[in-house]
Amino acid sequence: MEDQNKEYQIPETGYAEPEYQQLPLQQPLQPQTRVVYETRTWPIVTAAIAAAVLTFALCGVLFGTVMKRSRSQATPTSHSSAVSGQDDVWEHKLEQIKGLIDQYYIGEVDENKLADAAAAGMIEGIGDEWSYYISAEEYDSYKEAAANAYVGIGVTISIENVEHGVEIVDVTPDSPAYHAGLEIGDLIVAVEGVPILDGSEEALDLNETKNRVRGAEGTKVTITVERDKERLDFTITRAKIKTVNVTWELLEGGIAYIHIRNFEQDAAKDSINAIESALDRGAKALLFDVRFNPGGYKHELVELLDYLLPEGPLFRSIDYSGRESVDESDPDHLDLPMAVLVNYDSYSAAEFFAAALQEYGAASVVGEQTYGKGRFQVSMDLDDGSAINLSIGQYTTPNGVSLVGKGITPDYPVELSEEQKSDLYYSRLEKAEDAQLQKAIEVLTK
Fold first, then answer.
1. Distance CA 214, CA 238 (A)
2. How many domains does the chain divide into?
3. Domain end marker among 182, 211, 242
4. Residue 346: its pLDDT value, please?
5. Which of 84, 164, 370, 415 lies most in the core, judged by the most C-beta atoms within 10 Å?
6. Rounded to whole angstroms, how far apart are CA atoms 267 and 292?
């Protein structure tokens, strides 16, 4: 790799990937450091696959140091060659494996897949759950998620309990899907006439479905849905869509319920606007919901905490060079009763949002123990359009407490059933049936 010794400038932000079921994304974004939860779904799957195929890794593509071995040069005993120096161990092993593949493997080899597998396996090998490799094919979606905007049709999907398609669980207002007539509950069963997940040989899996739906702004895609046992075709023009990451409503008793879905781009601005709108409507207390919030940028987290909290430390971090930094709040703050809803899937920036409010005595925390993440990552571009997301530092709460492996302990622990958690994730749980929400309301109205 030509940029092995490149020094990456680490901006004062946090970085990682949210776990979205949003249909495909596609917009460039410069690498930045992010303070968030890395999605535990596709990186783990990718890593597992990588571990299985690492023995077929392509060292030459990644490092430009492999000599192409001819079939006559490679020998079965080449794997016993001596290795000089610790730094040469992995290079030598991968070179050997590549030579044996060239010599003996009977099938066809996709060199790009070998390179992806080698890269993913190398990052997995460092043993850090928050670091992972992102292929060039996946990187556009990854970057778009951080921007809270994407080019698509404007639907959110669920893949629960589906045998031959994906269910639409939300349609973005004023989106192409909304204007075309797609509805919540529709089952997407085909894209451009190709079936989805129906068990047939030609059927698309979820990633292939996303790739078919994705495309350039202004182009068209035909979606087939099943509604009331009838199949309907919708030809929809793709457009750039802003993801709504903050919503609010005024509950009884003057409680402003503010749902923050992530701390990605514009989260602080949108949250502050929601709070001020609620105050204009007579809100007397604030209830923040960061359940299933995967985190986001550090600067978004700090900006919102600065608005809410009095003078003092908000966030502490130390990077790979040993440099320590502390983000501080000014004296201006809100003096209102506050509560925060959390669950096990409240990660990173979401955890530290709740932790800061809890440590300052500004809010009660209600719900479940959170996961406990304590490292931040930088996304580093590679020459072929792929990237690695690498842990380069660690962080603590305002009081210097690490959450690694323990998370936040709620002031008022309340559990939901697995079915209720699923319904909450897909916005199907009625507020009256949400025991965590009801407990928070009770706390704020005492």
1. 8
2. 3
3. 242
4. 96
5. 370
6. 15
Domain C-terminal end among 242, 266, 297? 242
Enumerate residues 6+ apart whose C-beta is below 8 A from 438: 431, 432
Three-state secondary structure of the chain: CCCCCCCCCCCCCCCCCCCCCECCCCCCCCCCEEEECCCCCHHHHHHHHHHHHHHHCCHHHHHCCCCCCCCCCCCHHHHHCCCCCHHHHHHHHHHHHHHHHHHHCCCCCCHHHHHHHHHHHHHHHCCCCCCEEECHHHHHHHHHHHHCEEEECCEEEECCCCCCCEEEEEECCCCHHHHHCCCCCCEEEEECCEEECCCCCCCECHHHHHHHHCCCCCCEEEEEEEECCEEEEEEEECEEEECCCEEEEEECCCEEEEEECCECCCHHHHHHHHHHHHHHCCCCEEEEECCCCCEECHHHHHHHHHHHCCCEEEEEEEECCCCEEEEEECCCCCCCCEEEEECCCCCCHHHHHHHHHHHCCCEEEEECCCCCCCEEEEEEECCCCCEEEEEEEEEECCCCCCCCCCCCCCCEECCCCHHHHHHHHCCCCCHHHCHHHHHHHHHHHC
Residues 290, 383 within the same domain: yes
Q: Extract the tokens encoding 257.
A: 């319920």
Q: Are 239 and 217 in contact (CB under 8 A)?
A: yes
Most confidently modeled of 4-18, 150-164, 389-403?
A: 389-403
Quote the distance between the C-alpha of residue 33 and its chain's center. Answer: 14
Average pLDDT rounded to a whole number, residues 285-313: 96
The answer to whether position 286 is within a domain reads yes
pTM, two decimals, is 0.73
